[in-house]
Amino acid sequence: MSETIEVVQSNELIQKAGRAKAAASELANMTTQQKNAALHLVSTELLLEQEFLMAQNSKDLAAGKDAGMSESLLDRLKLDMPRLNDMAAALIQLTELPDPVGEVLEEWERPNGLAISTVRVPLGVVGMIYEARPNVTVDASSLCLKTGNAVLLRGSSTAIHSNKALVQVIHQALEKSDLPVDSVQLLEDTSRETAAEMFKLNDYLDVLIPRGGAKLIQTVVKNATVPVLETGAGNCHVYIDESADPEMAIDIAINAKTQRPSVCNACESILVHENWAAEHLPDLIAALQEKGVRIHGDAAVQQQGSSVVPVTEDDWETEYLDLEVAVKVVETADEAITHINRYGTKHSEAIVSSSTENADKFFLEVDAAAVYHNASTRFTDGFEFGFGAEIGISTQKLHARGPMGLPALTSTKYVIRGNGQVK
Amino acid sequence: MSETIEVVQSNELIQKAGRAKAAASELANMTTQQKNAALHLVSTELLLEQEFLMAQNSKDLAAGKDAGMSESLLDRLKLDMPRLNDMAAALIQLTELPDPVGEVLEEWERPNGLAISTVRVPLGVVGMIYEARPNVTVDASSLCLKTGNAVLLRGSSTAIHSNKALVQVIHQALEKSDLPVDSVQLLEDTSRETAAEMFKLNDYLDVLIPRGGAKLIQTVVKNATVPVLETGAGNCHVYIDESADPEMAIDIAINAKTQRPSVCNACESILVHENWAAEHLPDLIAALQEKGVRIHGDAAVQQQGSSVVPVTEDDWETEYLDLEVAVKVVETADEAITHINRYGTKHSEAIVSSSTENADKFFLEVDAAAVYHNASTRFTDGFEFGFGAEIGISTQKLHARGPMGLPALTSTKYVIRGNGQVK
Predict the structure, then answer these.
(1) Which of A118, A222, B83, B135 could form a disulfide with A105 if both were Cys (CB 3.0 to 4.6 A apart)?
(2) Of A223, A217, A152, A219, which Cα lies nearest the Cα of B222?
(3) Taking every annotated instance into account, which residue ranges of this chain make up the domain Aldehyde dehydrogenase (chains A, B) (predicted)?
């Protein structure tokens, strides 16, 4: 019995991956106009099918409630009119962005007369692995279609009715378009075993993109042999240098910590130069406490009041994603940089300082996707950077680092024109 | 006993990986001048220590002979004066290439006044896994030093004396330089178990680069969780279109197949349009046979003479790397493209044709790192492309595709300058 189930699972995975691969070679030849027309059709179909989508979503919501899912998870799972309208609007916005595919990045001629150019091409088939939010289904599909990639989606079992309904609606739209309907594939089998098989499907998938919590991402990174675009974890710091403007420093620290604590570019530790601390640490602590932030501090910070909890080694490594912060007083900018390079996750790091020299040192020596001088870490985001779309924020160093726009979903091809050259 | 050995192995791996990681953060801050000065010192030291290096190399050669190693493998293993001189010269050439690190790729300003730039930075620690050739030890180390990366080398046990001697000489040179001596680390433990541990050393290594045969590369790809730069396998085709100039087509096919059959950009299959074949196939077959090429042909090709062996399904998938070729007559350019996308390894593919339309179709639809019109596939090479250095030829789509020059050993960092911006 269990063996039969496994065979069925494999079949679905291989069949759908195979269909996506076949669709990918057709998709690579689609024009920008054809792709944008398809995105418009998906947008329209989402609006037309709102009732159906909400009805299917309500099955997932009911099952989630029965299973005791938390309010915040239920909220993430929910598809309502405003959210469906937002999805439809995002699809239209995507049609307005430049198509990276076909872009000529470089052209040169060799002494032997060969004319070489580097041209952007789609990656092929993108494997997307994500958690409860059903909007990722539409988001990932539309970004892939825009860049000429096929996508194999593996969402959460808790959102399976919503995801199936959304993909059905996308397929209805693709039927009316020039793009292959098979461009978007959803795995209905959400078992761990099939996910594990998907991680190693190198013959079909060109890249895996996990979207979700740190645990999901690490599971993919540690088990995949398909190349992974690693996104996510952000243990970000704000370092307040000796010469920092007090008001600016406190504004930036408060914004980075409290404006939206649950996201990866929020600040988790604040490092303060001792000379700045001598005068301004009480104001910083007061401002944090006023925002309801629980403070884990070193000995110097604990002197600010009994409500400061002693910081532990674990705190320096913790991504609280909540109204909590670890605070450390340092003797030098070098000590701050060493601390950040030891405990940071190479996501977003900020220095507040009036010294250009220290800012340049911080830029050079801190190893992170985004390094800031006198600005909040909260700006690490594809939209804030002006990319118009975001695949995620890469915390790895290969292929793409930091906020990823549409070009992160492309590769390149060398096109070489000759007139009979041989070696 | 066996447990003790494993602990020792792990210790060497972790210790050396840790030293490389510490060196990497120093290396990232070295100037182009400091790095070039170190490369000059390594070059000089290699020349000064020729006697020592050849003496150590002779131990590997003797062990290889005793073990019955083939003449061609012994030749790859050998370090003699001309080869050591070539290595020293290559190091000097490397100093003359532009340093990609620090290059500003893009700069823009956001409406809120944030000034963002994308700056090239080193990857960090490169793990290099390679086979018998000891020159890779110097080649990989010098490319990494030039790009500010530390390197952890894992060569073959058959070259261990040569590799240890080369790394000792590199260390002697680094002692005299500003660069950390620990920038180059060689694993003396060449066991499979330790290699398997190295494949999963995500906390220390930023990338793994396998250099060697298809089997080695696939072992790394299938087992590594550290991101891999996949290089190598090339099942390349030359397609001779209906309108191809006969002389040019035969020249290109002969060059791609026979100029150096053992390399990845050599041609393994020739596809011929039936209308071209009707008149010119006998000339092509004769030219190949004159060069001593064994021909595996389909029914149409077999009619050219009894020396043509019937082609099998396996042949289409085979990278002969020898004076053998599979030949197929096709009815259309589409059939050729479909065949290439089915059996090719996405390395280098060529069309010979007088039709710009068919060339453009081939460029668009063939999925490969390098696509050629009227030129030999043998040009897929970092030096032929004018990069001045080559890390390898990537056959994957993430990060780098095709011949990889120095920039393939770099990542990027977003540097953001503000004046107090908060979100």
Answers:
(1) A118
(2) A223
(3) 13-291
- Cβ-Cβ contacts under 8 Å, A373 against chain B: 416-418
Q: Return the higher-pLDDT residue of A178 and A230.
A: A178
Tell me the shortest Cα–Cα distance from B197 to chain A, in angstroms: 13
Which of A108, A338, A360, A411 is the best substitution to test chain B (most B C-beta atoms within 10 A)?
A411
Q: Which residues contact B313 (CB under 8 A, 6 or more apart)?
A: none
Asked if B388 and A343 touch (Cβ cutoff 8 Å), the reply is no
Tell me how far apart the terminal alpha carbons of chain A are, to the nearest angstrom: 60
User: In this structure, is residue B111 part of a structural domain?
Assistant: yes
- Together in a domain, A253 and A364: yes
Total domain count, chain A:
2
* Token pair recorded at residue A273: 């130069």
Pairing outcome for strands B410-421 and A104-109: unpaired
Quick one: B60 and B183 in the same domain? yes
- Is B413's CB within 8 Å of A399's CB? no
Question: pLDDT per residue over B252-297, tens digit each?
Answer: 999 999 999 988 999 999 999 999 999 999 999 999 999 999 999 9
Alpha helices in B206-269 (DSSP H): 214-223, 246-258
Whether residues A245 and A163 fall in one domain: no
Q: Is B228 on the interface with A (CB under 8 A)?
A: yes
* DSSP β-ladder status, B392-394 and B402-404: antiparallel
Residue A52: give its domain's CATH number: 3.40.605.10
Complex ipTM value: 0.91
The per-residue pLDDT for A394 is 93
On whether the CB atoms of residues B100 and B152 are closer than 8 A, the answer is no
Tokens of B6: 């494993």
Please indicate, yes or no, whether residues A185 and A127 belong to a single structural domain of this protein: yes
pLDDT band at B10 (very low <50, low <70, confident <90, very high): low
pLDDT tens digit string along A191-202? 999 999 999 999
Domain hosting residue A80, numbered range: 2-231
Structure tokens that stand for A137 in this block: 């289904």
B350, B239 contact by CB (below 8 A): yes
- The set of residues, in sequence order, having a beta carbon less than 8 Å from that of B36 and lying 6+ positions away, is B95, B99, B146
Q: Looking at chain A from residue 192 to 221, which residues have their Cβ under 8 Å from any Cβ of chain B?
A: 200, 202, 206-207, 221
C-beta separation of A159 from A63 below 8 A: no
Measured distance CA(A107)–CA(A415) in Å, rounded: 9
Helices A333-343 and A356-365 pack at an angle, to 10 degrees, of: 20
pLDDT at residue B133, rounded to an integer = 87
Whether the CB-CB separation of A289 and A258 falls below 8 Å is answered with no
pLDDT reading at A5 higher than 70: no
Instruction: Please state, rounded to an integer, the average pLDDT across all residues of chain B.
Output: 94
Cβ B422–A369 below 8 Å, yes or no? no
Nearest CA in chain B to A260: B423
Could you tell me if A23 and A113 lie in one domain? yes
Overall residue count recorded for chain A in this entry: 423
> What is the tens place of the pLDDT at every residue in B374-405?
999 999 999 999 998 888 899 889 999 999 99
User: Is B108 exposed, middle or buried, given 0-12, 13-18 or 19+ CB atoms closer than 10 A?
Assistant: exposed
- C-alpha A33/C-alpha A29 separation (Å) is 12
Please indicate, yes or no, whether residues A259 and A304 belong to a single structural domain of this protein.
yes
Provide mean pLDDT across the span B296-321: 94
Q: Spell out the residues 6+ positions from residue A370 whose beta carbon is closer than 8 angstroms to its own.
A: A347, A348, A349, A377, A379, A380, A402, A403, B413, B414, B416
Q: What is the CATH number of the domain that holds A363?
A: 3.40.309.10
* Assigned domain for B330 exists: yes
Of the candidates B259, B365, B414, which has its C-beta nearest A29's C-beta?
A: B365
Residue type, A317: E
* A257 Cβ under 8 Å from any chain B Cβ: no
Pair (B17, B159) in one structural domain: yes
pLDDT of A161-174, one tens digit each? 999 999 999 999 99
* A391 is a domain residue: no
